[in-house]
């Protein structure tokens, strides 16, 4: 081996050692420096760092918020009713050394442990409540309680639970039909009650309206009769006054009106004595001629 080859090999080894002697930790990472398999520098801060080449090794882990979304869990409520609860967890690494010791640096192992502990928290909290309480009444409070409980249970894993929420709550398929049928029956019963109440109210309103109608018609008839009586009286008074002023003229106009009304239709036929009082003024005209 000549000197040039030796220098090239030596330079390459030196360059490799230099490259292996420093590392960079970004804002998205947490890092641990190991020496012969033992953690000697845990939780390296963000920035540029040096290490002993070959002897020391660096392991980096994602420090961003992670999401765990598993299959729905079968949970029993205080009413002994099973529910399918679909939840998710948002978490991040806060203590990288604890995380490494608890899971050997494996996110798969961590997710498995988180899944088991979240299921325990769900069962513990849902088992104290009814379906109505977990669905609507105390849901926000329940989420807060479960988040706090899960955080307490994962301190030994080196992570912090950012959010723990229930996405969906369903009934098992074998119970859904019976529950829906009960709901449908209850709604139909309620609808019938409302219809019956509506019909009863309608009958009451109709009876009141009929009563008011009779009263209004009676009052209207009474007023009309009073007005008619007043009108007839006033008419009789006017006729009497006119008759007293010129009885002959009054009798004449009344006779003319009677002629017009009697012979209004050409087809009318009336059999009466020509010397009748009815033809008094016609006969008087004839006598004058």
From TrEMBL:
It is a single-pass membrane protein. Its main location: membrane. Residues 20-183 form the Band domain. Pfam families: Band_7. It comes from the Bacteria. One of its GO terms (biological process) is proteolysis. One of its GO terms (cellular component) is membrane. One of its GO terms (molecular function) is peptidase activity. It is found in: Membrane. InterPro entries: Band_7, Band_7/SPFH_dom_sf, HflC, Stomatin_HflK_fam. The keyword Glycoprotein does not apply. Belongs to the band 7/mec-2 family. HflC subfamily. PANTHER family: MODULATOR OF FTSH PROTEASE HFLC. HflC and HflK could regulate a protease. This is Protein HflC. The gene is hflC.
